[in-house]
Design a protein that fits this description.
alpha+beta, 3-stranded antiparallel β-sheet, 8 strands, 296 residues
């Protein structure tokens, strides 16, 4: 309905109608095939020559539809738009009804009879045109999609939350002893306690929680984004101990190993700067820089 010159490509996936989940009406077809026919029907109703193609992608749902040309001249655009409006309203008013009970248009095509509807006089609320609201409650997406995965939050805000949560885990229980025998000496490094996401949230102020709730995943997403510091498993937050991280399974050639090691030293080690015991790994084994002089 955007304009007469509009073309479209669609790759149907989840089974949804205009107003909710798509309701099956034919048992002789698979659910996928029936839904594909419905999507093609929408294209035909809108006055398109609908072409079907199968994409070369690793997916079980790879049938696509393309609408590149119209089935009617530009002079009939207003008439077809009125039929589209009636079709939309029929889907809304008769969502559970069978195909032959819906009303709204007389448009013949090669859609196995799905689109040969019985015409009738439109109701008062079905006489909308392109100049009015397309359908009640319809909200199109913004032209620029807002990033809401915590990646666009101010760096100072993220650093403050990370430091507060880390201190909470370190101070929530008596110091844990993670001992490694190195040269006959015991090296104790405080890994802190593990807390549930709810327990962590209870210790954050209201303004911080309000800001996080506006992001997808909220606190959990922010903590997972900070993979260097935290590990979130089964709804519980832990401070990551890099001594327990598994080394890469594949052995790389010497040249590739040297290049990847150099490339890793692009960020400062959070533990070296903020943890009371420093980093649990020596500088040569840590994937992060122990000081600005190691940054590459």
């Amino acid at each position: 309905r955007s304009s007469y010159s509009c073309c479209y490509f669609v790759l149907p996936c989840c089974f949804f109608d205009f107003h909710g989940k798509y309701s099956r009406r034919q048992s002789k077809k698979t659910q996928y095939r029936e839904y594909l026919d419905f999507v093609a029907q929408v294209g035909f109703v809108c006055g398109f020559h609908v072409e079907e193609d199968c994409l070369r992608i690793p997916s079980t749902k790879r049938v696509s539809f393309i609408g590149k040309s119209r089935t009617y001249p530009p002079a009939e655009h207003a008439l077809i738009d009125n039929q589209i409006t009636q079709f939309i309203n029929s889907r809304q008013n008769c969502a559970v009804a069978t195909c032959d009970r819906r009303v709204g248009f007389k448009h013949k095509n090669r859609c196995d009879g799905l689109c040969e509807e019985v015409g009738s006089e439109p109701a008062e609320d079905e006489t909308e045109t392109a100049g009015t609201v397309w359908m009640p409650g319809f909200q199109p997406r913004e032209k620029v999609e807002q990033i809401r995965n915590c990646a666009s939050l101010p760096r100072d805000f993220v650093d403050e939350v990370v430091l507060n949560v880390a201190n909470l885990l370190l101070n929530s229980a008596p110091q844990k002893s993670c001992s490694d025998m190195q040269g006959g000496h015991t090296n104790t490094w405080n890994q802190g306690e593990s807390l549930s996401l709810r327990e962590v949230a209870e210790h954050l102020n209201k303004e911080t929680l309000k800001k996080l709730k506006s992001e997808y995943g909220g606190l959990q997403t922010l903590l997972k984004n900070n993979h260097q510091v935290f590990e979130v498993l089964n709804g519980r937050v832990h401070i990551r101990d890099w001594r327990k991280e598994k080394p890469p399974s594949k052995i790389k050639p010497e040249v590739k190993r040297r290049l990847s090691a150099e490339a890793l030293k692009t960020r400062l080690c959070w533990f070296f700067i903020h943890h009371p015991d420093g980093c649990s790994l020596p500088s040569e084994a840590c994937p992060y820089a122990h000081g600005t002089e190691e940054l590459r």
